[in-house]
Amino acid sequence: MTKFTREQLIAHANESVKSMKFAARQTVFKTSRVAIEMDLALARIALASLEAMPVAWSCAHNMVLFNAESVAAYAKHSAIAPKPLYAAQPASLSHEEELVMLVKQLVSQLKKAKPDCKLPDMAMGYLERNGLISAEDVLR
User: Fold this and answer.
1) What is the pTM of this model?
2) Which distant-in-sequence residues (6+ apart) come within 8 Å of 137 by Cβ?
3) β partners of residue 65
4) Would you give the distance in Å from CA 56 to the centre of its chain?
5) What number is the average pLDDT over the span 77-87?
C-alpha cells in the first residue's frame, strides 16, 4: 500500500473540496447534488482534522503537558510516549456559500412581494454567470 505524506493528503483534500464545490453548482439533479454536498462536507471535516495541531499531550498518571518543549523533555525520560490531544473546530460554510444562500432567500421573498420586479432575475443571473449557482437554481 502506498504511503502518503500529510502535505500530500492536505493538497489532495483541498483539490477535492474545490472540485466538489464546482460539481455541486453544476449538477442539475437534486439527488446528485445532495450526494456531492455530503461528500463535500466530509472532505471539509477530513481537511480540518489533517490541518489540526495538538493542543496538549497526554502522559502517564493522568498528566497533561501543554507545550512541545515539555513533551520532548518528558519523552526522553519516560518509557511511555506522550499522546497528542487535538481540538479542531467543525468545518463551516464559507462566506461565499452563506452569501449565495442569503441572496437566494432574498430573491424568493422579493418575487413574492413584487412579482413584476426585475431585480430577482438580475440577481439570479449574476449568481449563475459567476458560477455560484447552477441552471436548475435559476429555473426554480
Assistant:
1) 0.44
2) 104, 124, 127, 128
3) 57
4) 24
5) 77
Helices (H) and strands (E) in the chain, counts: 6, 3
| 18 vs 12: CA distance, rounded Å | 10
Q: Where are the domains of the chain?
A: 1-52, 53-87, 93-140
User: 80 burial class (0-12, 13-18, 19+ CB within 10 angstroms)?
Assistant: exposed
Q: What φ, ψ does residue 94 adopt, rounded to 5°?
A: -75, 160
The answer to whether residue 9 scores a pLDDT higher than 80 is yes
pLDDT band at 20 (very low <50, low <70, confident <90, very high): confident
CA–CA gap between residue 26 and residue 7 (Å, rounded): 29
Name the β-bridge partners of 57: 65, 84
Q: What is the pLDDT of residues 39-65, one digit of tens each?
A: 888 888 888 888 888 888 888 777 777
Q: What cell was used for 16?
A: 477535492
In whole angstroms, what separates CA 42 from the centre of its chain? 8
